[in-house]
# Entry
Amino acid sequence: MSEIAEIKARQILDSRGNPTISVKVSLESGVSGISCVPSGASTGEYEAYEKRDNDNSSYFGKSVHSAVENVNDIIAKSLSGIDSYNQRLVDDIMINLDGTPNKSNLGANAILGVSLAVAIASAQELEIPLYKYIGGVNAHILPVPMMNVINGGKHANNLLDFQEFMIVPAGAKYFDEALRMGAEVYQKLKKVLDERKMPTSVGDEGGFAPELQNNAEAILLILEAIEKAHYTPGKDIFIALDPAASEFYSNGKYTLKEAGRETVLDSSEMVDMYAGFVEKFPIISIEDGLAQDDFNGFSMLMKELGDKIQVVGDDLTVTNISRITKAIDAHAINSVLIKLNQIGTLSETMDAIQLTQKNNMTALISHRSGETEDTTIADLAVAVNSGLIKTGAPARTERVCKYNRLLQIEEELGPNSKFLGIKAFKGIGSKIS
# Structure
């Protein structure tokens, strides 16, 4: 009764008002599962291919009717009658059907939509939560939320070079407490901005997008909000950065435009800049501090700060086994950002997580800037006991629904749940008082 009976895709809108794909998989038992695929703004060159129509008469070329058709006309026929519990077989059939290294034939968005909907339907048929279906009886760790509260770069129309400034309530004892702490700081940050007559409009991921002169100013505002919310920076709540450095990298150099003045730095100088930030501020994590092909720069960053902070690869690694392996060999990172749509199937995502954790690195489960009400990543974070999740500010429904799902999971697990707090950062956490 777990055989796949019908697969139906349709076009929907993501949180930015752009088209994306939703897939419904129905089983012979009558049970069904629905998934919605996210989309990124700052995308790595090595990510799996997101198929769009490129027809300017529809959503300025961003419609996904071709991906929808590939699901309904090609994938659905190939998976008809397949056992939905055999996730790897389902994913392998689609990978082979596509036949390209980056899923550019059928589209990674089409393939991922089916892959996740199959898993969701299977969990529904077994009447167990998705996190338990994916992770089994050992799924019990609630993640520390890393909340993007000030947006820059491609996520906002302001002068900030860095894309994300995050708060990390790692001093909490439970997930619900961490969520409360983060939400309180977010609300206090809004008041801080109001007091300075700064706009409180938000970027793609719910963070505020004020007109600031430089990256340090953004950090100082956050620290003020933390203190005004009656928390201690570096003890209760930490700072995390995602510069998304590939966006301001060209010809071997990084060009920062703080306060309207261009500053050109090489990899070594970028590392020195980050070291200065870590020395001055309670920063616990830097994601994509160097460009997606700057493995040497990442290695320098790891050598300088790897025992003090989490050095995260995103565009560098794109949830891809070969890229993660290259980063491991280069001693370039101690953490991997995990995004389902960077690779395109649940099975490949699980392989990337397993490789990451096997090499004693953290697997940071992440959303995208273009999101939906789909809460799969919340279940995934618990399923693999990642201990960390990045899903935006505690604002906007497409972000908050993930946090609310985690509250529900925490309640379901009850005393069996565990929240690692600062220990989720492995060796780094033990070095922070």
In short: The first helix runs from residue 65 to 79. The mean pLDDT is 95. DSSP finds 13 helices and 17 strands in the chain. The chain has two domains: 4-127, 137-431.
